[in-house]
Amino acid sequence: MILKRLNKIYFIGIKGVGTAALAVLLKEKGYQVAGSDVNFDFGTDEMLRKSKIRIYRGFKKNNLDQFVAGSSKTLVIATGAHKVLANIESVYAKKRGIKVLTYGEALGRFMEEKKQISVAGSHGKTTTAAIISHLLFYSKYDPSYIIGCSAVKTLFRTGHYGLGDYFIAEADEYVSDPKYDLTPKFHYQKPTIAVVLNVDFDHPDVYKSKEEVISAFCGFVKKIKKHGFLVICGDNPKIKKVIKSTKSKVFTYGFSKSNDFIISNIYCKEKNTFFEIEKAGKKIGPFSLSLFGRQNVVNATASIIVAGIVGLSWTDVKILLPKFKGIKRRLEFIKKTKKGALIFDDYAHHPVQIREVFNALKNNFPKKRLVCVFQPHTVSRTKTFFKQFVESLSLFDLIVLTKIYPSAREKMDKSVSSKLMAGELRKQKKEVYYSHSFKKAAQILEEKVHFNDIIVTMGAGDIFRLYSFLH
């Protein structure tokens, strides 16, 4: 199938952060775009509405009949949140002779006409892809980009089809379809510049061990085009196996003196983070970032190196980097409560991410009490990393746990729950509460939070719905 022959593209699960961004990009490119999804509010609703993209409520055969209307030039793209190729609309489309692709394969196909900048890693992909897009967009490169969040504060939309040479996207290690296509999504990309931020064991529903995850990343870097580049954090010894899997030019970065780009002299001042980078014995910087947290400095460093490869000068980057104001649900400031507590929100859903969030808040608010409201995401992840979740959450002064946000891909398991996690935290003499609803969680916060506390909500589900109950 030649994509250029298409005129209509239909998304199953169009409200997902990845699919919504791709839908907007393809609408900008000139395709007729529509899609279906569940009848709940999503953070992407406004962007889709402004782009005049129709959303059908629920999954029904009739949705496709209405949209296709006899056209033979239609492509259907299915997302993992709604059974992918087993979705009723996917099955019906195939019966009608309509081509159906998983989101991962479709993204790879549409990236092929450009020089691909693919950002991989178990954590930090979205922020790093957003920073790179910001730097190139405001340097007049007019890149195409797909960013997996509902909003980037300095970009108009999270999906954009640019006239420039580059296409920036996250490179996700999750499989394309747990039932029908076990190909890791990022294996469909063929980057000119690949970024590997870190490698962690995150998806126990499809990977059996960290070694399997490393193997998937090795396969990803083998996809780098001839004369391409790999930008990779060299601080983790296990990364060496990934580096050995590519023949491309490699740039390592991190805090270790063995890296090509060495991060140093990090300090915070007036809500900004400053840092320097050393390359071949020469200091580059200082750079300023309007975000806090050591991990954001690491993500920014990867972005700076990519910008340099593309052609931006260090001076250009120094000017543009502090203008980046972050993305939705990544240590995002939400509001100040009537009691004077500050509320932040983060997408953290893995023990490593929770620890990073804690460290970032502790470094910026060293004398304040830190309160965490955590919604575990997926039964399999909660069960596999139960002990690690308890260890990371125990860093906080007060913890409120809500029910596990399950995936449609998995079955419930009574051997694991947020109640059991709360019990383990109490054994460590922690002040912890379990809530069956967001309304009850908000009531707990109203009663227990002190003046000037720092509250952070965390999770990859719908924890953000809690805010409507907080005053």
Please tell me about this protein's structure.
- With 471 residues, the chain is of the alpha/beta class.
- The protein has three domains: 100 residues, Rossmann fold (3-Layer(aba) Sandwich); 210 residues, UDP-N-acetylmuramoyl-L-alanine:D-glutamate ligase (3-Layer(aba) Sandwich); 138 residues, Protein-Tyrosine Phosphatase, Chain A (Alpha-Beta Complex), CATH 3.90.190.
- 31% of the residues lie in helices and 25% in strands.
- The protein contains 15 helices and 23 strands.
- The strands form four sheets. Strands 8-7-9-6-12-13-14-15-16-17 form a ten-stranded mixed beta sheet.
- Helix 6 crosses helix 9 and helix 11 runs parallel beside helix 13.
- The N and C termini lie far apart (54 Å).
Report the principal-axis shape: globular
Fraction of residues in helices? 25-40%
How many whole angstroms does the radius of gyration measure? 22 Å
The count of strands amounts to: 23
Please name the fourth-level CATH homologous superfamily of the largest domain. Mur-like, catalytic domain
The number of distinct structural domains comes to 3
Average predicted confidence as pLDDT = 92
